[in-house]
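Revision sheet: structure tokens.
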Amino acid sequence: MRFSKLARFSAAVTAIAAMGCQANLDVVNPNAPDAKRALSDPAALEAVGSGALRTWINTWSACTGNCNLDTQAQTYTASWNNFQMNFYAQIDADGTRNTRGWQNDPASSNRLPVEGPWTGYYQSMSSATDILTAIRVNGVKLSTPDATKRVEIVSELAQAASEMAIALMYDKGYIVDETVDFSTLAYSDRKKMRDAARARFDEVITLAGANSFTTPASWVNGFALTNTQIAQLANTMNAVLLAMWPRTAAENAAVDWAAVLNYASKGISSGTAWDFAFVGNGDTWYPETYCWFNSMDTGRVHTRVANMLDASQKNPWVRPGNPQPNSADKRLGDGSFGTADMIPGFGNVPKTANAGTDFAWSGQAIFNAARGDYQQSNIAHIRYDATGTQDPSGIYGCNGRVPIISATANDLIWAEAIIRTNGNLATAASLINKTRVTRGGLPPATAADGAAGLTAKMQYEQEVELLGMGPIGQMNRRRVDGLITGTPAEMPVPAKELGVFGQALYSWGGNNPRNSPTPP
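Predicted:
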């Protein structure tokens, strides 16, 4: 059965539809030309290739999936049930989440956080695979060899990034590329997904290093990327993949940290540092997680993190609330922010000379107290509000520049890899100090802190600097066994997907195990 490109992968991989078609139904719909013909047009190739990357970016930045993970990990907090946050972030009376496993059931609206990321990443993978099939199998060429290689390499980057996300978030998935035989397609466990993504990133590194090009700025909305930057990005993504994949502290200890060190040392903070970022426009480029949690009236920083920034912010929150801080960390400072005539209800103190760069204090406890005081917080994350006043023209309206993966994320993983491989602690300290001292104004980390002291400072920086960056905040917590008992550490294959093949529904978290066993 043949399908138009845009009709496929609406909820699952191409293989599901293809495998469901019998030979006697193998007909061509003349109103929906097949992918081979539709993607013989070079202009279509570029549009679909750049679209694959945009789909991945928007999925990585979406609240469906990420906002649940952030509130479960107690990096951010919100009692609203948008994206089912309240349901999954609730803490049972016994202090666990033993009734809060993923409700992976087609009859439950609480299934959506599991379903959304799967759909988005496989849509991206589908588009990328169609491009690679057109170029590598069908021999389609663009106007120049460089243009052909550019869309080919960026498509493989999107394909690898989608496999990475599935490996990080789910217990298993499909490995799909231009060579796949759909008739024999089967699930691969999370380790095989990880290894497939790693191998594909390695190929991107090789291909990008062997070619010369620059992408149009529109492909990452506002930022053109050279082939050298693509190779650096693939190195960083491999470092993120390996470092953030563990579901437990035991798996974290078993990571190939030498490989992480190798990749991070060649990543986006090596040489002239740069952020893999895009400009949100509130529409087609949608930084939803940042939009929700950089708005003082929708999300707050969890008191677990707020207490790290300033001891006056008690964890858990105690009525009538935490006082205005006076933090030594310049990212919080005295918590002042904005002007006296901001939107009523923000409870802000107008900005002073000691205002923080990333966080602000609000005298208003905005959440429903009946849902648990532990969800309240007086500290907001305002780092990406370039307007400085919560104006809708900025991140409050999902507009403005935000990082997808930052140079700082690479630096901190690099520092961790040095520490874990018994490397040069002075070098690790210098990487940590890029934000600890330069942005935070805190006393510098030094080799004299030793591995344990540097690890603590590195983890502090990760907590503060990586807020809102896709699902990384939750993964950072789970790999140190930092999640509340009963909190799921990964997602199951979505119920809708299981239903296609009549497979049994299953879940993680709650009264189930928090995650699948470590694959051999």
